[in-house]
Structures are given as structure tokens and as C-alpha cells.
Amino acid sequence: MRRELASYFTTPLAYIFIVIFLMMSGVFTFYLGRFFERGQADLISFFNFIPWLYLILVPAIAMRLWSEERKSGTIELLMTLPVTVVQAVLGKFLAAWLFIGVALLLTFPVWVTVNYLGEPDNGVILASYLGSWLMAGGFLAIGSCVSATTKSQVVAFILTLVICFLFVAAGFPMVLDAFTEWAPLWMIDGISSLSFLTHFDAISRGVIDLRDLLYFLIMTVCWLTATTIVINIKKAD
User: Fold this and answer.
1) Containing domain of residue 84, as a range?
2) How many domains does the chain have?
3) GO molecular function of the protein, one example (predicted)?
4) Measuring CA to CA, which residue among 217, 223, 224, 230 is closest to residue 90?
5) How far apart are CA 84 and CA 166, in angstroms?
6) pLDDT greater than 60 at residue 98
7) Confidence of residue 219 (pLDDT cuts 50, 70, 90)
């Protein structure tokens, strides 16, 4: 994990990602989110846009987790080190997750600005940050699994983006409406419960429900388990 985390900052990738993330966060919050026009001291506009920001930037981080190792052939060297496949998967995932957490923490000036301009509910904002980080972990776990299946970072990026979008869009009313005429209620509720937005929105309202936390935990664990299985299969080949 330390090696992977340090590797982000030995190339321009980390700095480019952080700069783009902070710039787009500011644009979405203050301009597209019409922060000043609304005249309300909160970060709703920031957290409303962050799933869509993640949809582009997180796959860009996840695509290199395993694709780069497979393309350069260093995955064989990695497998000879005194670490298990599970440890390698967790190490790479945690490094990327911590890196995104650092980028998220660097948005604190936005939080400071809101407190300077008014009296927001900081408990809700803190919960929203937690939900954002958990959602990033879910996106990364999906990207990790996809990255392990291909040597092409471009293919990994596109497939991760598509899969993450499907998990985000599963809770959209227009998607659920397509099932209402023929599907039973339990199926519609099941599809809605698969959406990242359904659980993130609940947390971003300041309600930290165990079911929402379990959703992100199970989603992350399942995709990381799938990553381990894929790597073991590729190693056997």
C-alpha cells in the first residue's frame, strides 16, 4: 500500500488528478450549482455533482491498478513477492482509496467558505463527506476488478465507467418507470437498492443508516473478491 501510494506522487498523475478534481469541484459548486444565487449556506450543490465527477475521475485512477502491471509484465514480479494475492489487491485498492481521500480532504476550503458565509449543518456535511468517500471506494473496487481483466487501460476505463454508470442510474425514476408496468414491487425495490445514488443520498441527508453502510461495504468486498478471483485465474493461465 505504501509503495502504491508513493507511486502516485512520483508521476504528474496525482497532481493532475487533484488539480482537475479541485477545479471541477469548484465549478460544479459555485457556478453550475448556482451557490451564490441560491443564497443558502450548504454544500448540496457540491455533493449533488460529486457522483458524476467520480464517474469520470475514479475510473481514470482505477484503470491503471492492474492493467499497467499486466501490460508491462511486472505482475509476474509482484506475484513472486512475499505477499498473497489478497494482500496485493487490498494494498493497491487502499492506496488508491486513500489517494482519493486526500483529494476529497483538499476540498476543505469549500467547507470553510460555507461556514464563513453562514451557519450550515456541519453534521450533514461531515456525513456527506463520509458517503462520498465510501462511494469512491465502491467505484474503485469495480474499477479494480475490470482493470484485472484487461491489459488495456483505455478498455478498463470505458468498461468501469459504463458499469459504474449502470449502478448509479439504477435508482433513476426513468429507469424504474420502465419496470413498473410489468415487474413486481420487490424487483423494483431491488433494482433501486442497487443504485449508488439511493444510498449516497440517504447519507448526504445526515442519516447514517447501517443498511447504507453495509451496501457500500458489501459492494466493495464483492468486487475486490472478484478481483482476487480474476487475478488467480490469470495467474494460472
Assistant:
1) 2-236
2) 1
3) ABC-type transporter activity
4) 224
5) 32
6) yes
7) very high
